[in-house]
Specification:
11 strands; mainly beta; six-stranded antiparallel beta sheet; elongated
Amino acid sequence: MYLNGAILPGSPAIAVISIVWFNKGEFINQSWSHITLARMVGWKAIGPAVHSPAAENIAYEHSGKNQFAVTDTGEIQYVTPGSITIPENAWHRGCLIAPVTSA
């Protein structure tokens, strides 16, 4: 996984995070369940975030539906709206933009 980002100062501060994740093994993700990928250290989200759809090399019928999300505790998650099988070595790319405060 590759995470890159910045905290833009302001009131509130804004976190801008780029995510590239390659999963190593096939797995099934249940509808609306999440996979925690990382956690922002020293920061937590304080309001609604912009969750862009993930660009992925998975089955066409599932493309454009899955997304990265950030929680109010700073967890960066991968979320699917339906139960789907994610194949081995799939790549997932996306970004998050969220208002944050220091934790």
